[in-house]
Amino acid sequence: MLVDLDVSSASASFLMDVHSEYTTMEASMNLHRLDASFWSNLVSSTPHRVDVLQAPGAMRFHDSLNGERVRHVLRFARALYGYIVVDLGRLNGVSLNLTEEVSELFVVTTPEISSLYEAGRVLNKLLDPGITGGRIQLILNRLSKGVSRSTSDLECVLGRPVSATLGDYSSELHEAYGNGQFLDERLPLCKQTRQMVATFLGVAEEPKPPARTGLGLFRFAGVGQTPH
Fold first, then answer.
1. What number of CA atoms fall less than 13 Å from residue 148's CA on the CB side?
2. Which of 198, 217, 200 is nearest to 208 (CA)?
3. How many other C-beta atoms can be found within 10 angstroms of the C-beta atom of residue 219?
4. 112: which residues sit within 8 A by CB, 6+ positions away?
5. Lowest CB count within 10 Å: 138, 200, 214, 220, which one?
6. Strand partners of residue 151
7. Do 167 and 139 meet the contact criterion of CB atoms below 8 Å apart?
């Protein structure tokens, strides 16, 4: 399950080819109606075996989400999916309200100075006592070969170990998205991503898509810049 909470963007809906009139906003405003039947009308199933609850920004600009209501939506969804990925977008009042709900919190940044500065601000806030109950993982995205050698220097700057790195394949991504496709699975970036996910899940190989069960066992959330 992918839950998108960006109030001003439709990127996830575009990339997943989702076309729906319902968003996280409708789910949060109809808590009294949430059951399996109503939920099936809210989410969009994709050929990739991932259900998507798209962001408010996919339909309207600047709808204001209520963090407490979204918290109840996530708790409801937890009973329907083995894995839930929540794109928290930029750190704000709503995303901060939800950090206690996640078991793994991913801060994604690129190596540019301005991005590292913002990542440092986010990390400092998340490390405040009582902010999050989950582990914080730092991911460096779009890392060129030259920068990858100085990962230890970046760790010193941010005061946090780097959990994973992803290479810079911007041109390949632009070409794939322009053709309405995902990246070729044979590309190194796909292998890097599979290995990263397998490591976070504690498995020795690429995890297979989980069967839908009645118990949510693991939750993810991301803060900061959206990864590839």
1. 10
2. 198
3. 21
4. none
5. 214
6. none
7. no
**If you search the block for the tokens 């693991």, which residue do you land on?**
218
Whole-model pTM?
0.80
> Do the beta carbons of residue 160 and residue 137 sit within 8 Å?
no
Cα distance between residue 6 and residue 62, in whole Å: 9
| Rounded-to-integer distance, Cα 123 and Cα 163, Å | 14
**The predicted structure's pLDDT at residue 206:** 53
> Which is nearest to 226 in space by CA: 89, 24, 124, 112?
89
Q: How confident is the model at residue 222 (pLDDT cuts 50, 70, 90)?
A: very low
Q: How confident is the model at residue 27 (pLDDT cuts 50, 70, 90)?
A: very high
CB contact set of 47 (below 8 Å; sequence gap of 6+): none
- Which residues does 184 contact at the CB level (< 8 Å), separation at least 6? 172, 176, 190
